[in-house]
Amino acid sequence: MDKRKKIYRPNVAAIVLSCKYPLKSEIFIASRSDIANSWQFPQGGIDKDETPEDALFRELKEEIGTNEIEIIAQYPKWVSYDFPNTVAKKMYPFDGQIQKYFLVKLKNNTKINLKTKHPEFDNYKFIKYKEVFDYIVYFKRPIYKEVLNYFKKEGYL
């Protein structure tokens, strides 16, 4: 039996709200271009010597073509999840990710552009809070539920 300690990749994730917030609460989700029917929030690794905030702005620019956002709040702790076997092979040596979640709002008139240098998404939509779990890939649901429930309880959503 494999007794090695699990290794988690440091990562940031963004719950992106439309520029209509707080009048209208619409949450951005995007469909991965490499995995069919896999919807998620923008996220990405934290580079060496990079703060979570720096990684957040860089990843949003790389993944959705803009970092024109305002940070509204951040989840107070780091959360982790394990990759399913199909993903773990691609992400070796990491067994999963440990993430810092940010709740952000797009600035007025900000345009999403998925046609970035290395596109990760091929579609996106803004949905209501209660619709998120109709789309999100199964292995991320527990984390999303924890984080979204926190922001809802705190009065942000």
Task: Output the keywords.
single chain; 157 residues; alpha+beta; Nucleoside Triphosphate Pyrophosphohydrolase; five-stranded mixed beta sheet; three-stranded antiparallel beta sheet; 3 helices; globular
Write a structural description:
With 157 residues, this protein is α+β, with helices and mostly antiparallel strands. It has one domain: Nucleoside Triphosphate Pyrophosphohydrolase (Alpha-Beta Complex). Helices cover 21% and strands 31% of the residues. It has helices at 52-64, 85-91, 141-153; strands at residues 8-17, 27-32, 39-40, 43-45, 69-74, 79-82, 96-106, 121-127. It is globular.
Number of beta strands = 8
Determine the strand fraction and express it as a percent band. 25-35%
Broad shape? globular
CATH topology: Nucleoside Triphosphate Pyrophosphohydrolase
Number of domains: 1
What's the overall average pLDDT, rounded? 94
SS-derived structural category: alpha+beta
**Continuous helix count:** 3
C-alpha termini separation: 44 Å
Low-pLDDT parts are: none
CATH class: Alpha Beta
| Cα Rg | 15 Å
CATH architecture: Alpha-Beta Complex
Helix content: 10-25%
